[in-house]
Structure prediction request, 712 residues.
Amino acid sequence: TVPAALARSPDPLLADAGLRACVAGGDAAATLAALQRDGASTVPARREAALALFERGETATLPLVIDWALDAATTIDDAKRVLRRRLAEPGGELPRVLVERALLGGAAAASETRVLDLLAVASASVRSGLVARLLLDGNDAVARKRIVADRLFDPGRTAKLRELADAFAWGVMRGRELTGKRFAIHITPKRDQWGFTHMGTTEIHVTPLPILQRVRHGRDIVEGLILHEFGHHMWHGDKDSLRVWRRAKQAGLHPLLNLVADEHLERNLRSLDADFGDRIKRLDAQAFQHAAREIAVDDLLRMLQGNAPAVFGAIEPGVAFADDAVRVDSGRLLAELDRVGHSFARFVRALRMGLGDRSGDPKVAQALSHFGAGFRGLDMRGLYRVTRALAALFGGDALLAQGFGGHESVQWNERDADIAGDGIADGDVQREVERILEPPRPQAAGAAGGGRLAINVGGDAAYRRITKLQVVPHDPALHESVAQPVRRHASQLRQTLLRLGLSHRHARARMRGHALDRARVLPLVTRGDPRLLIARSIDVSSDLFLGVLVDCSGSMSGANLERARRFGVLVAEAARGLTGVDARFYGFTDKVIYEAGDARRCAVSSLQASDGNNDAAALDHVANVAARSTRRAKLLVMISDGLPTECSVAALRNLVVQLGRRHRMCCAQVAVRPLSEVCFPHYVLLDDANLDAAVRRFADLIGKLVGRALAM
Prediction:
């Protein structure tokens, strides 16, 4: 045909016109043939034709459609609309193809963030595995942060957080004993070294990775790192020592002096306590023997100098995520340098790894002679003299100290923290440390709220009541945007609410039934009355007050509050229109209780996060509302992260118990993250990856609680 001939033209204008004519004429065969030949048609025209055929069911054009969908110029909504059916297929390959294109081809082939947007259409089971691949193997920091923000943290997160906080709290107490000061121990900023401190301050920064990654003896390594930084303050932090540090830095000897000072402080710490020595040995073993690190190729070549060819061939560096770096194993690299005769590497292994002079190298023997019996008593000037002697002895080989001189030269990166950290940030650890060392006290009645967010596990069962109420207006459009994705789950919960009041009602003197009514035998004999059976019918008598509280404190910001709002709206959709259920919704902080309407006009979707939280006061307020209700059963549900700050855990637990025992109210919790402290005996962990299962568990829970209450 003419259009088909034009589509094969070497002129781009004619080829585009012919291709569009084939599409307009509905000639799928000619259009597909033109796309499969090397014609002069332009990319926009080819994509337009491929898209038209794909929407008519022609799957052969899928590669061109994928190119179109991954193009930044294409709106993500259009891409989802076109690919929705293929992405949602239970056994479809398209989601996997998109992820592999992003991982293998890099940003030039496919943006990881765009692939992540498209995966939102795929089924939950397919999406979870592919998102995990993007998290582990991807190189896009923006996509990784989105995955982490939306991720329901592993149940082991609580154990990691507690272990890390216990280590930091142990360090605070050891700091008081060793220095007489209270030091604040923080997580090192990402992309920084394992540990550091600034002289003249009372802050220490250490990496949490050995605990987060579940390294063997991880807590001992972190505590050894804390002790190590205390040692710098104890022996290398006075004014004279600071002048020596500055002089070494100007002379380019700072890394080498740091290696010498590390050995000095660790020997002194071992002399104070044998347990300190055990922790430091494990720290050194991890830093010098087991730590794999990413290091820039230029820096590595500069440190290895002429030994680079022999060492590189033996250690087989791994692929790093940074474009200009390789991944190397510290212990293997030092061992290989030892094998090829690198005197400084032999010295580092002999001194810092405790291996001694196994090679018989005269330079190593001469270097170790500076670390005899009097070494532990040297001041900073003496340590600098040793440093200068080592620099003169080893010459350029001492450059190795810049990258392999101890834990200060080991860096950890943001990617490691995102993957292993389960969202644990320094603020989370500081709150837990404060909880361990100095539980905050509830404020007196009438005092202003606020303050730092910290879980309060004090023993005081008193709490300050909240008197300020604020009505949140209903926003129909916003509510609908949240309700639409969870409507199917709401229908599932609605069936449970409908069945809550089901009971069997028995009617006597019936012609049809399931059992004999013995009292009707006499009328049958004397009067011939045949109504001698008992019939059973199902009677619906739901009679429930449902109060839902949403934690709106600062610790709920981000994905946690999104989960809470979504589940609150889900409950509202399930209860809307049920004559036997009165549902009321509230948000709360430590200062305000937000009245968020009922099931018909629910305003949960408009709640925002701020301030602290007084869980006991909020639960008390809604319990008072429930007490005024005429409904037989009262169910109070708190959706929160389980971190009360302006009331103690004891206060909240006590209130839950009292409401159940004295007032016959059922209390339950929907947790948006694994709980640090369990305050409600009945709770459900909200799982984004399997919302059906979470709703089913919640339905079973309230069915059991409310059914028990209605039976009283």
